Each structure stands twice: as C-alpha cells, then as structure tokens.
C-alpha cells in the first residue's frame, strides 16, 4: 500500500507541476503570484526527481542475474 501512495503522490505532484507551468505560461499571474508559483514548481520538481531516483535504485536492486546483483541500465524504449 505504501508503494501505491508514493505512486499517487508522484502523479499528483507531476499534475500540479503541469498546472503551474500552464499558469506561468499564460502570463495572467501577477509578479508575486508568478514568483510563488515558480518557487512551488521548483519544490515539486525536486520531489519528483527524488522519487524517480528512488525508483531507479529499486529497479537496479531488483535486477538479479545468476544469484548476484547485476546493475543494468533501464531503457523504457526497449519495450
């Protein structure tokens, strides 16, 4: 259940970041609101990057070959 919550949190943070970007690109925000949105966007970006790094580490740890840990690069385009 914890993994599901992390996944949801990542997806929520990413969706919120996309919304912030749209607001900033629209040019309708005041300078102060734009600065606050930008600061929040930086925070969300860092959180998403951290979650992605944690996920990458888990993928590397779970890659096992012949009983020993073998680190392999993950390439989503190999599908």
**Cross-sheet strand order for the largest sheet:** 1-2
How many DSSP H or I helices? 2
Instruction: Give average pLDDT, whole number.
Output: 81
- The overall number of domains is 1
What is the name of the CATH class?
Mainly Alpha
Describe the model:
The protein has 79 residues and is mostly helical. The protein has a single domain (2-78), classed as Exonuclease VII, small subunit (Helix Hairpins). It is 72% helix and 5% strand. It has 2 helices and 2 strands; from the N terminus they run H-H-E-E. It has helices at 2-26, 31-62, and strands at 64-65, 68-69. It has a two-stranded antiparallel sheet. Helix 1 (2-26) runs antiparallel to helix 2. The longest helix is centred in the middle third of the chain and has 32 residues, at 31-62. The protein is elongated, with a radius of gyration of 17 Å. It starts with a helix and ends in a 10-residue tail after the last strand.
Q: Could you give a quick summary of the protein structure above?
A:
With 79 residues, the protein is mainly alpha-helical. 72% of the residues lie in helices and 5% in strands.
Q: Can you give keywords for this protein?
A:
Helix Hairpins, 2 strands, 2 helices, 79 residues, mainly alpha
Topology, please?
Elements: H1 2-26, H2 31-62, E1 64-65, E2 68-69
Antiparallel strand pairs: 1-2
Helix pairs in contact: 1-2
